[in-house]
């Protein structure tokens, strides 16, 4: 019989595994919006979104409402990693009836305690922020707004359920005329525990309370907590797992003893998990085992066992001593004799066994719950392994080495993917509450400063309208022969008069020079479409910034290499040259370089015809089979290549290393070229927009810093707000400013972040990806030797978002000016037009394109703009321009 009883209370590993699985299910139910209200494991959001970083500082008050007393603490956080926290506390016993009295009486009592405490420490005038530890289930809406769902333990004060307890406390405090005491934060005791333990260096992200009751909280990914709006960062979730099993999910492991304990409790059917795990109930379970064994004549033969009918005769201290002490059986004997029983030696041994098995089960079940939480964290952070510290508080953990050992071992077995460090909490919740309060104050202050710093980068609709109007004005200035020289947007004629019509044929060479990659291509245009082969060649910085001769020699060498590899040495193929720098074009095959951009500065080229430079280099290299028929800008190439598929494509847009656009303008508007018939493609060179000072209001300090460090300072100012070569740099400068202001990385200097271009624009794309787990973001930052807390990561993401949003919006404002001008010139109420787009930033950034399109729709509501991604526009486009040119040059009646 004894064996059978012990066996019923022993849970094999497979069962614990199953319990873990059910806990996980219950947690998911609590997190989901649909099922939250009816979930047993409520997963209550706490609105605590961060763990302390040690810079928290100041004097705080804490009120802790406990089972039979109120504890008031004064805590001083020194702000130095919180190594030498000072605290003074006092406990006030509660009048016995108050727990069942009115809510007003309870809160008045608490406020009186605060009043007495403050006069006790002689500090009635100082301003205090107060943290309130309120260990009951609340529906929290903010850190300082929490409705009581229901009382528990011995409490049942009237008029409190459904009310905001922060307000009730604040009102009572005000009644005491303590106007300088502000209730800032309300939290559960479990959360307090987690916060205290976070002090010891690395943050604790989980807390487990193994005391009279049981509970657990942890830092969850906010996007998975459906009841809150927050979608980035983390939030501490108070699981309230004591009610796990109230829907019957644990019925297969409940023993008759558990049923008896439940029936005799004040809330039958509720808190089933807690009733197996909480120390309040362990003595009761043991008592029922003993009753049953005595009835079966397995124990206390000859004793009168009526005493076992009395609730609460086994105290948890006795049980722990029976388990823990060397003379456990002697302890058992003493305890049993004190109850008037006459135990035999064997009885004492058996009682000890029962105590062990009941406490072990509590530990194993706690481990099953904990491992569910840990596995969930590991999964939701998309990690293969999670290293985590778990703060543990409560008498079972502190005073029972058996409990501790089983908790550790079983958790390791059930969540093998997690490396768990259990951290015992020393007076958990009091300090923790002070820290939560301090953290929330610190975050509020920081938020304000971060907002201030980013404000100049945030553009209103009016700002964007102004940019649009300015761009329109600059376009007009650039097109007019008289004013062209004063315009920052050059509006260069390209001599491209039409987009392809699909009848172009032939085989062409193409070059793409003008940014990150230099490429040579062979393009075959036929009835079946376009086929091409290409190769990327590196242009070393030394050549980009060396002499023009060296640059063009290098280009010819690359062409020769390519022709050799492709077996094209013997043929003379027409060549289209995509040259993506501002050029004054004299004809389709004559383009004078106006200035370099995007990191190029080869000498002796500005003012020269680049086709001529290419031909001269060919001569130097004795490469005679080269026939350059057209030079085009990459915007034009992009428009042409998309135009091949969509005749509506009359705009080309690039957002890559640099940014630029071209569009088909009415010849009558182009004052810089003879003739009024038809249209011509205008290469806007909009990257230089603002170089005449018209955008000065929009440049921030960070843009200034980025500009100063470029090789073309003061030039291409618009491009430097938008394109891939610069966005990372802007972010880097903002991050440095935030560090300087102690708003990031705890103000710790970041030497690696001082390096120019270390923060690549592609990081923005990664960091802004939706649903990126916080840990992944932290990993990126780690590569830059930045130790980012979760708030740091959120701030970094916000900076990236602000910078890339501004870029997309500015691009949209300029594009709005273009489409509106096209619509007006054509005298249309509505314009439908397609934009051919190229550039890695546009293509790879997760939000750039849709933000651009959204803003454009808003700013140019009478234009329906479709965006078509160009597939290798600059290569294909150059060939098509060459094809169109050859087509035209061919004698009439040719093939
Ligand atoms: P180019 O404009 O020189 O023809 P690309 O269109 O490929 O070349 O653009 C290169 C630029 O794209 C680089 O400045 C780089 O910073 C940026 N970039 C590269 N990868 C990404 C990415 N994943 N997200 C955003 N920008 C990127
Ligand atoms: Mg390109």
UniProtKB/TrEMBL annotation:
Domain Hexokinase C-terminal, first and last residues per copy: 206-439, 650-884
Gene Ontology biological process terms, A to Z: glucose metabolic process; glycolytic process; intracellular glucose homeostasis
InterPro entries: ATPase_NBD, Hexokinase, Hexokinase_BS, Hexokinase_C, Hexokinase_N
Signal peptide: 1-21
Enzyme class: transferase
Pathway: Carbohydrate metabolism; hexose metabolism; Carbohydrate degradation; glycolysis; D-glyceraldehyde 3-phosphate and glycerone phosphate from D-glucose: step 1/4
Gene Ontology cellular component terms for the protein in this record: cytosol; mitochondrion
Listed EC numbers: 2.7.1.1
Reactions performed catalytically: a D-hexose + ATP = a D-hexose 6-phosphate + ADP + H(+); D-glucose + ATP = D-glucose 6-phosphate + ADP + H(+); D-fructose + ATP = D-fructose 6-phosphate + ADP + H(+)
Xref: PROSITE patterns: HEXOKINASE_1 (PS00378), HEXOKINASE_2 (PS51748)
GO molecular function (one): D-glucose binding
Residue span, Hexokinase N-terminal domain: 2-198, 450-644
Entry keyword set: ATP-binding, Glycolysis, Kinase, Nucleotide-binding, Repeat, Signal, Transferase
Family the entry assigns: Belongs to the hexokinase family.
Protein's name in the database: hexokinase
Protein species of origin: Indicator maculatus
Gene name of this polypeptide: Hk3
